[in-house]
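FAQ: What does the model actually see?

It sees only this:
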Amino acid sequence: MKKGYKSLVFIGLTSLLFSCNISNGNSSDSNAPTSETISESTSSDSSNLSESTSSDSSIVSESSVTTSTSSIGNSFIYNAFTASEKNLFINLVGEVIPFVSNNEYYVEENEDMYGKYVTYYTFGNSKDEFNNYLSSLVNGGYILNDESKDEYGDTWYTYIKDEKVVIEIGYYFWEGENVIDAYVYPYSDYSNNDGENTYSDFTQEEKNIFNTYIGEVIPFLPSSEYSIEGYYEFDDYENGVFYYTVGNTLEDFNNYRNLLLNNGYILTDQMEDEYGDTWYTYIKNDDIVIDTSFYVWEGINYIDVYVYSSLSSDGGDVGGDQEDVDLITNQGKGLPNGENGVYNANFANGKYVKSVADQGYYLDGCPTTGDVKVLVIPVEFSDRQASSLGYDLEKLNLALNGESGTTNYYSVSEYYKISSYGKLNLQFDILDEWFMPQNNVSYYENLTMDYYGSELEIGDQVVMDEALQYLEDKIDLSEYDSDNNQVIDAIMLISTVEIDENKSFNWAFRYWNLYTDENDYYYEYDGVSANDYLWASYQFILESYDEEGNVTYDSNTINPYTYIHEFGHVLGADDYYDTAYINEPLLGCDIMDAMNGDHNPFTKFNYGWLTSSRVVVADESVTLKLEDFSKSGDTIIIANNYDEELGAYQEYYVLMYYRSVELNGGDYGYFINDGVVMYHVNASLYREEADGIVYYDIYNNNTDESDYYGTKDNLIEFVKSPNDTIVYTLGMSSSADIIDDQGNKISYTFTIDSLNENEATITFTKNK
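And it is asked to produce this:
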């Protein structure tokens, strides 16, 4: 039970059930009028109920409430339950409760999260008759256990008999009628722990809730009944998990408090609430907070546990000036302890984000690992048909699925298999015919919709919707949902439109589906919806260059570069170039910037392809081997501060051994020389909340020179050598004057001792 709702939770439920019972009418054995008569004579409008309920709830009060006409002269029609009603009480609660004589009553079976119970209510009885009925309960062995007022000011009384039967009962005046309202349920369903604990641990699903909201699973209290729910939002709490047990003893609670202490939680505060119950606050690592209490409510023992993550120690500046951005950084965290001068970082220990799949903007995005089937829809228009342009689906298949040597570079599928070290296997399923939308090119080029006050171009999304409607009866679209989240992993729409960089419809991009029905729901096809999609012209695979470097289109060319780059966006990477073309953080040298070649280390961290690295933590110096990055993704991190809970999402420097092989081979390499390349990464996270859910996303980027985010810090950038080169070759050393985004000098310098075809040897020295 949620602390703070003692007097409201059950009463709110009873009011709702009362309204529903009235609307639904009587059971076949009830003595009440027909449901049609009831519907006409009563209303479940809560506003009317609120306005009309104003009864004196005291048991020992004078009988001042006007009696309903249905009980004139105390001449009652009904004086006992029917046989079937008695059987209902016996079956559900074990005995028949006392009857109150009346002219109109109802007995019904109901069920909630705790189990089945009986509702029994009457119309027309006076307050004296209600008080007499309470006396009959006492005479029948029921003991008054609790009383509380509901939101309407009416008093509810809880009676318990032999720890077997519980009756909650209230009296109120509603729409001209006096109502006695009783809820009867078995005490055993709510009883204290009898020593036999049914549950000894959280389920895996519940553990996932803790990991999602808190970052770790808290200790479990063995119990016969418990419940948890992820995310709550009260005045005193921001975001976390609510966990409570039913029936545990005070001794159990004290044992649980000791268990918290044994698991690293420190008692920091205790206070008494308005009910006289004591709440204890425990904190672990200055971050995870647990508020817990033991109390007895209506004869039942409860232990409430509120768990949330305090971000007060995580906030920091990332070079920006926006005070309202809730940043999570590694500032001031220092370096962890390691062995032999190295700390082995495991990004899977990230508390907030482990990979792009956990980031708020990417929810329901395409999986970045595993076997993924991508639906490819070739699109031609009535005024720009593929056959007249010589566009060939076999050439498209080679660009997407071809083996080495069949394209000018690598096909999209082969590229991502190599770049991911075999962790992502893309299969592009291309329709065997061109889909033709209902209208011509110009119709879709100019199609817009109002999207929160902005005119959004949606021609491409309408084409996608038409295509999926067409395909729904022809193929099973659910086959393209590999992670079974009811969202198609990714869709590629390759159109016959002519390339025009001034028109988005004629360009290449990845986007999210914003085209929804009147209720803002995605349209569904075969039980799945479209979200991530890639739109591009077929003409991009014909791109070539003349001797002056100008773009031409050659029918003999199969150039998959644009599709590889755009699919990088589908997987969640941003562009790494400065859109104002003033600053060049990566000098064009990245597949997500302006060139072919492999993805950089941070992108592979972000995709979840690389889940570990080595952080230099030597007291003086250490010499390490760094393997060719193309072979296994080996990296070394230099950091002024490092926080294991932030994983790859913090500020640091990362080194790789670059070689002009495989994806960086031949004309597609970034650099002439092989050697060590160092990147400065500032992937600090920021916290945001939407619709009551908390998300985490990366704060910095490379593309926004306009300082929209209040920072000019880049997400990723090269760190040049003292010779103004990107590649550190044999014998070269890094500068001791490299400054991070907080104005602090880099913690270690390094020197390249040796290079061979397999690895580099590097000595790191503490920067004094």
